[in-house]
Amino acid sequence: MDPVKFYFFSLSPPARFNLLTIKYLKLNVEIIIVNLRNKEQFSQEFLKLNPQHTVPAIDDNGFILWESRAIATYLVSSKAPGNSLYPTDVKKRALVNNRLYLDHELQMAFLGMVYPVYSMGGKEVSKSQKEKMYKALGNLNTFLEGQKYVAGSELTLADLALLATVVSIQEMGANVKKFNNITAWLKTLESVPGAQENLEGAQLFANFIKSMIDLKQTWDD
What we know:
4 strands, alpha+beta
């Protein structure tokens, strides 16, 4: 069978989550770049594939899927069933799903922070958006208390999803270092396959947004 076609853009945290998953599982994929800044997601070819014009998306020999969490769980279930990234034990899997919803909370806070700048010409990250972001990060910090990974003692999809999001938030200027558990967790994940590519993508996007609001360091500086 042909390799899975993976529609990807490095500035997108959800797309980088899927890349981290692919690299961890050592899957054979064909990476197809969809440049969101050039609005390539609105091309007729891509709209036929994904009418919601979102990245990431996959084409697994005619099976089309988008939304990063759906993609990640599908890839584990179909290409590496039984892998601990998405455990088969019902309770362990429920915890992974729970933490994926936490990633959704962080993603929405991130979008609320970025959208006013990118799409509406805003010149700063508002105090209310910073507070919302720090509240979500505080929840993550609490979940990490006394454990190595976000959903227990093993690396899971929840860690990879949150890694893509948290690194993006940190590069955007959030002072993540004030959360000791998150800082230790990030250190643990430095060696996962794809971590460097994730960091580079986050830096590219953060530098683009920060240049629009003249932000040099963290929000707290």
